Amino acid sequence: MDERKVRTRPVHLTTPVTALAYHDDEILLSGQGPYLKASLISTSETLKCIHLGGDWKVHRIVQANIQHISDSTVTRLLLVFGAKSLRIMRLVVTRSDGKSHPSAYFQHLWNVPHMKDWILDAQWLWPKSDIPGESPALRSSKGVHITVPPTSIAIGYAHNFVEVFDLPQDPFTISHQENELLQEDSLPNFQLTYSVQSEEHCTLFCGRFHNNTLEDLWFASGTVFCHALLWKVHHKGGIEAPVVNSLIGHEGILFGIRWSDDGKAVCTVSDDRTIRVWDITHGTNITHTTHFGHTARVWDCQFAGQYLISISEDASCRVWRNPLLPGSDDTDDMSDCLACWEGHEGKSAWSVAVSSHGVVATGGGDGGIHLWRLDSIVAGSSDAEQNTRDINLPDITTYYPEAVANEKEFVRDFVITSHSQSIYATNTGYILVRDDNNGAWSTLYNSPLLKNYVSLESSACGRVVVAGCLSGKLAIVSVQNEFETIVADTIGGIKIQFIFLLEGESLDDFRIVIFRANCTVGVFHLNISTATSKATCDHICDLKLPKNNKAIHAAYYSPLYNLVLLGSRDGAVMVYNLDQVVKGLSEPVTLESIVILERCHGNDSVSSILMITERGEGYEGRDRINVYTTGRDGSWAKYRFLGLPGGEVIGARSLSDDDDNSDIESDDDEGITNMPNEPDNHSNLDDREGGSTIVLQKVFRSKITKGWLEKIFIMDGELLLLGFFNKKLFVYNESKHFEIRSFSRELTAGSELFESAKLQNNFHGREVRHLRFLSGARPLTEGAPAPIIIATGGEDCRLRMFQYIPYKTKNSCTALKPLCNLKPHLGAAIRCLEWSHTEVPHSYVLFTGGAIESMRAWQVTMSIPNSYQVQAVEDHSGKVVQEHTPLFLGCFELAQCPHVSENLETRIMDLSVFRLESHPRMHFIASVYSDAAIRVWLFDEVTNTFVLAIDTSYHQKCILQVSHVRVGEGIMMLTAATDGKIAIWDLTSTLDKFLEKYDADENKVVKPHSPSYGKNKQKVQKRYAQRLDRPIAEVTAHMSGVNSLYVQNLGQDGILAVSGGDDNALAAVLIKATWNPSLRAIEAQSANVIARDDYAHGSAIQAVFMINASEIVTTSQDQMLSLWHLDRVGGNGYDAALVKLESQFVHVPDPSTMDILASEDKTKDSVIIAGIGVQIFDVDAKK
């Protein structure tokens, strides 16, 4: 290999996880691209990660049923294969007495890089005499305990034939260094001892072996003709083996096939979205069951005791009843699916493995690995008869002596006050208490007021019960006999429909919120005096609802800020300030809301509200005050109060947020209304900055179920959601992103089996279309390196941000730390994004653009804990470096750009952002559109608005690229389209005219920072907009579309633009231009293609960048990264020549975007490439 090629090194990769296998109940093996990794599931620690070399892709890991145990070391044999390549390896695991965690490493034994066909399965084989067991038919391929090493391997190929090779020697006797990578081909050392072709010559998409001896070896083939073939490999009658069974029933190509451990059943999955389980114990009389549930193609399904575990293109993992178990015929088809685990983003869960302890690991197309527990299905089974019980009221005569014959008695309402006590209100006006431990009943209270109607509510502590009646009175009852029952009057004697009993300042203080039948709300203050055994209840105020509002379904009281928050049936949230209550009045006052949020959950009801104050976690040490809501639309939302005492203030430039995985999902017509406090009323909310307005700002909303959510609460520091779906109650752990389906406390926070449900963080679930490093970021604290932040956007409509930590590249998949995960708009893919700096330290603006002409501005801020101290760590080479600061990143949507086109199909194809020194708080965004429009927008930080500055059209084709470069005091813009032409524009004088008009307008409206929803219906204001004349120069660089464009000012040598196109060509264009200060104009003398390579790549070039004045980096759909030198000597009719220095294979399918960031010490450049996954390379600086 040429020594120059060592300049480019892969250092990080996140791609689909295509192989999983458990070594034991602690260690999980995974294959991701060319990497093989061993992880400890209890702590998510990576024990070892190795690169298998070249363009390897791990498709499956096959472990031998033998372990060589010596002292504290366990050695296991592995067959690792992918495509036509095979490696035979050893995994060595050491458990030392002095260490709590094991260590592991891999040893390469043999490398077979070029088999004759695509490998579908491989199997370890032993002589029949070495395997215990009475009958081959009962022999498990998985659970047999074998004491001697294997002697051969069987390989099943995609054209339905099998080969058997003898191992050159005992694999446990080979001496190899730890992680030593074998490059030479070991196939000549393997002797082919047996080869057989199935009698049915066909192409397979899947295949699996069963049994571990040649004499008993079976192969199950999944064909492209929608059926499966079972045939015995060892056949004495000739070179073709007969098919024993043909399993016909699927209506699509088979993608996966598995044997049961005892070989009595086969499970197949298909393109028809079904799972079929075949009972093959009766020879030709084969029966099967069919299981429906997945919404896309099914990739795999395996037997796991009483369960089947399947994975699908719909990114879910489903657990099914095993239909072959005794008694399974008694269950109906609807109950076959016991659980649906949805944790992976985007498209496809590709791999699955199950440990003997019942921990299911799934690997996704998003590059993540998730852990699930089978015992949560048993603990959370809500349809099991033993988990439910009927409660019957006692005989009416035992508590109601005056009951007449045949008097109807039934429960009107009930509450559960503790794990052992429940309270029931009956039709006859009695409130009964039941001891749920022994079933004993007692009377708590009775009154004619409660006869025939009652609304019941209890306090969270279970000490107080409040009953509302038809006449509008409240009966307040002590469950523990702490005070005498109080009957309180309400205004107007109107029926009470709903009651909310909310905790106040102390254990003996409560607020009672009632909703009356006439759509009015009353608030009462209940205070209990334990010293005097008395209680008081005062009607302190009524709350005015909006005219179009419906019933109130949720309420929350904040004693710290004296606020009441109400959630309505039509999705609105209202906030009321009880400090506005004027004491001493004869009649309760009616308060107006200070904040109204409409359509928080669409048109569905708000089901619960929670308010959490995080002391000192906000900007400048202020309190961060969060509000959470759940709704019947299946989503939960997070909001942030601005303007409350001690909290973050309105207009703060550096709000921080530490939510790692937040989603924004928006619907049309949602909005936020901020209403000022009445100045005539007294309020203790007058220490806020920026005016007399309290803002409840939306942070994000996440939909987690197609059912509805009923409650949100905190337990053991975890954010938990309670909801219903398909007649089942579920509990979802939002902090760890998995469904618990259990109501026992032990399963809510942590597990003895694993700490985190995410063993490996995920990337995007669909193709990434654009990404950008945050260049020029400053260190967050003295002595620390500058944080490396990456923003990404793609076809999954998500905006994500990651922190890149270079010294963690030793383990490949751990160097990217997710910081936030936003979904700005449903159905609008993000195609382009660009960063811009602000004058505020550690605060930046990010602009995103894409489908449906959607462009948004985001405020991105970074912060660290005040007590943080920089630590020294070792990088992958053992060098001591300063730790990259663990940071909190906040991302808030500032504004959405107005739509100009009437065509909903119009897309923003690319962005280029710059600022002018004369206007530092103004960001100019050059944007190009699919309808040939070229627009320059101003985003004004002061007014928080997008303003159209320049609007023109050119190329008459879809414009693909835009870039800019500074020439003197001017701005040069370059655009490129599908016609292969690059147009060069001078923006300087046009921007001067725009700013002259814009700065003169003193009536510009300042808008609060609030997120947008759906398509922006605000009409674009064109009163400042200017038009561009023709470009100052134009050049044809390609024969078709220009997919990538990079521009660099070389000073006196001119301006160099490099481009890559659909024609596979790489071109370099030199522009000669000068700045004329007297005319404030850029004058172009020439623009010519000085170098071109028509065959730069084997497919369309997707991205180009210059790492210095003479070197270029390119990537293409051919999955190659190439480093080029621009030789100014020239040749082939051009003034310069492009010389390819080196190429590297990119393990990211469909690479579509690239960016480069120079290291702080200028010794290397980090090159990041993304598509279906992401890979980072280090390119050493030219010496």
Give a quick summary of the entry:
With 1183 residues, this protein is mainly beta.
Mean pLDDT: 85
Gross geometry: flat
What is the percentage of strand-forming residues? over 45%
Cα-based radius of gyration, to the nearest Å: 34 Å
Strand order of the largest sheet: 10-11-12-13-17
Low-confidence segments = 135-141, 379-386, 653-692, 740-751, 1009-1016
Question: What is the CA-CA span between the terminal residues?
Answer: 19 Å
For the sheet with most strands, the description reads:
5 strands, mixed
Main features:
tRNA_Anticodon_Mtase-Reg; WD40_repeat_CS; single chain; 1183 residues; cytoplasm; 5-stranded mixed β-sheet; mainly beta; 2 helices; 2% helix; WD40_rpt
Task: Give the SSE layout.
Blueprint: E1 8-14, E2 17-22, E3 27-32, E4 35-40, E5 45-51, E6 60-70, E7 73-82, E8 85-94, E9 103-112, E10 119-125, E11 152-157, E12 161-166, E13 191-198, E14 204-210, E15 218-223, E16 227-232, E17 240-241, E18 243-248, E19 254-259, E20 265-270, E21 275-279, E22 287-291, E23 298-304, E24 307-312, E25 317-321, E26 337-341, E27 349-354, E28 359-364, E29 369-373, H1 375-379, E30 411-418, E31 421-426, E32 430-435, E33 441-446, E34 455-458, E35 464-468, E36 474-478, E37 486-488, E38 496-503, E39 509-516, E40 521-529, E41 534-543, E42 552-558, E43 563-568, E44 573-577, E45 589-591, E46 595-598, E47 606-614, E48 624-631, E49 635-642, E50 671-674, E51 695-703, E52 708-715, E53 718-725, E54 728-733, E55 738-739, E56 758-760, E57 768-773, E58 789-794, E59 799-804, E60 816-822, E61 830-837, E62 843-850, E63 855-863, E64 872-874, E65 880-882, E66 888-896, E67 908-916, E68 919-929, E69 933-940, E70 945-953, E71 959-967, E72 970-977, E73 981-986, H2 988-1000, E74 1033-1036, E75 1042-1049, E76 1055-1061, E77 1066-1076, E78 1081-1093, ...
Parallel strand pairs: 13-17, 41-45
Antiparallel strand pairs: 1-85, 2-3, 3-4, 4-5, 6-7, 7-8, 8-9, 10-11, 11-12, 12-13, 14-15, 15-16, 16-18, 19-20, 20-21, 21-22, 23-24, 24-25, 25-26, 27-28, 28-29, 29-56, 30-31, 31-32, 32-33, 34-35, 35-36, 36-37, 38-39, 39-40, 40-41, 42-43, 43-44, 44-46, 46-50, 47-48, 48-49, 49-51, 52-53, 53-54, ...
